[in-house]
Amino acid sequence: MNRYSRTTAVAGALVVGALAVPGAPAAARDGGLRGAATIAPGREGIVEVAGVPETTAGATLTLTAPRGTRVTGTPLDASGYRGSVAADGRSATYTVTGGAAAGQDRVFPFVLAVPAHAVPGTRLRDCSLRLTDGRGVPRAVGRCAVTVGLAGPTLTSPLSGVPLAARPEISGTAHPGAQVTVRDKDDREACATTAAPDGTWACTPGDGLPAGANRLQAVATVNGVSAMSEQVDISVAETGAGQ
Questions:
Q1: Does residue 223 have a pLDDT over 50?
Q2: pLDDT level of residue 102 (50, 70, 90 thresholds)
Q3: Rounded to whole angstroms, how far apart are CA atoms 121 and 222?
Q4: 20 pLDDT exceeds 60?
Q5: CB of 112 within 8 A of CB of 48?
Q6: CB 232 within 8 A of CB 155
Q7: Which pLDDT tens digit goes with each residue over 109-148?
Q8: What DSSP character marks residue 206?
Q9: Which of 136, 217, 204, 212 is nearest to 174 (CA)?
Q10: DSSP 187
Q11: pLDDT digit string (tens) for 162-220?
Q12: Is residue 50 a contact partner of residue 109, using CB atoms and an 8 Å limit?
């Protein structure tokens, strides 16, 4: 496992459409550059690039960021490689400086920042990968898939440990316009609503929660992308108490 010199949220890599440059060496044709990430609006995540064929000193791997995003870091913590980010954040590179040779088991992390106005569930365009040797000759190219994810909603009320009536107001924050569903410990729907333009939401159980210990969790969904809040332990008073 590679060690990164910067701590941030990591998104897993997966294979995406890799291409080979005509006339490239067999190593590039048989493998292919690949990487992917799902990053929430206004957040940073890591695109982990794999499939880099054997290289020598001077070889350069370049990631060009999708439209509207910026590369903010190259946190690979390994000797023999030098990472750099373009001044405008549109691209970043790793260069083999000597004493190391990239192979197909090596993963190269690029930190990517997604703007706050990005729409969850959309695939960002024009993320590309390119590998050249020490003479600048292309060896392999590929495309990285970056999908806008969804930050988890919050559940700010009710508070844990406070005895509740059967129909307490439940509230929190979520991505504006998200469909929010609150579920109890038995995965039954307690209530549902839509987050306001400022991200706030609130709803009240229609049938009332059963008496006793329970647990609530909010699930937000936008364009088919979902995220969950932390769970909140609650205690509902016997019927008639607190009504």
A1: yes
A2: low
A3: 7
A4: no
A5: no
A6: yes
A7: 999 999 999 999 999 999 999 999 989 999 999 999 999 9
A8: S
A9: 217
A10: S
A11: 889 999 999 999 999 999 999 999 999 999 999 999 999 999 999 889 999 999 999 99
A12: no
Q: Would you say 53 and 139 are in contact if contact means Cβ atoms under 8 Å apart?
A: yes
The string of DSSP letters for 75-107 reads -B--TTEEEEE-TTSSEEEEEE-SS----TT--
Alpha helices in the chain (DSSP H): 26-30
Our measurement of the distance from residue 90's CA atom to the centroid of its chain's CA atoms, rounded to an integer in Å, reads: 19
Q: What is the DSSP letter of 115?
A: -
The three-point CA angle 116-202-200 to 5° equals 20
> In terms of pLDDT, which residue wins out, 21 or 98?
98
Cα 91 from Cα 6, distance rounded (Å): 18
Angle at 93 between CA 29 and CA 95, to 5 degrees: 80
Q: Which of 142, 141, 126 is nearest to 67 (CA)?
A: 126
Contact 49, 33 (CB under 8 A): yes
Q: Which residues contact 240 (CB under 8 A, 6 or more apart)?
A: none
Give the span between the Cα atoms of 191 and 124, in whole angstroms: 33
| pLDDT band (50, 70, 90) for residue 104 | low
Peptide bond connecting 41 to the previous residue in cis, omega within 30 degrees of 0: no
Q: Look up residue 84 and give its amino acid.
A: S
User: Tell me: the pLDDT tens digits for 35-66?
Assistant: 999 999 999 999 999 998 888 889 999 999 99
Q: What token pair was written down for 26?
A: 């067999």
DSSP for residue 165: -
